[in-house]
Design brief:
The protein is of the alpha+beta class. The protein is 40% helix and 10% strand. It has one domain. Bound molecules: zinc ion (ZN) (2 copies).
Length: 100
């Protein structure tokens, strides 16, 4: 796995910042899981934020979307939007944010 695009490390939940056991979440999962792995599009999450709580990334589309947007923003600090879209197949940010 390459260095994560987001500031995230094992043992600290990226969402709630709680210290403890974390799991690797592939921000673009399903068929894109391998691509997420290769490009560091992952976040270390506690079990609650990953799976268990109502706001968990696998249970709440709003949490899922916010994480994808944060990941895209971070990725675009060192890559172009075209590169992101060619990997992920989709743009998650609004046109207004494109100018940054
Ligand atoms: Zn958490
Ligand atoms: Zn996950």
């Amino acid at each position: 796995m390459t260095r994560p695009v987001l500031q995230t490390r094992p043992g600290i939940c990226y969402i709630c910042r709680k210290r403890g056991i974390t799991q690797v979440h592939h921000i673009f999962y399903g068929p894109l899981r391998g691509m997420s792995d290769e490009n560091g599009l992952i976040a270390h999450l506690c079990m609650d934020c990953h799976m268990n709580a109502p706001h968990a990334v696998h249970r709440c589309i709003d949490t899922d979307l916010k994480l994808r947007q944060r990941c895209q923003r971070a990725f675009e600090r060192s890559h172009t939007r075209d590169e992101f879209v060619s990997l992920v197949g989709k743009n998650y940010l609004t046109e207004k944010e494109k100018k940054k």
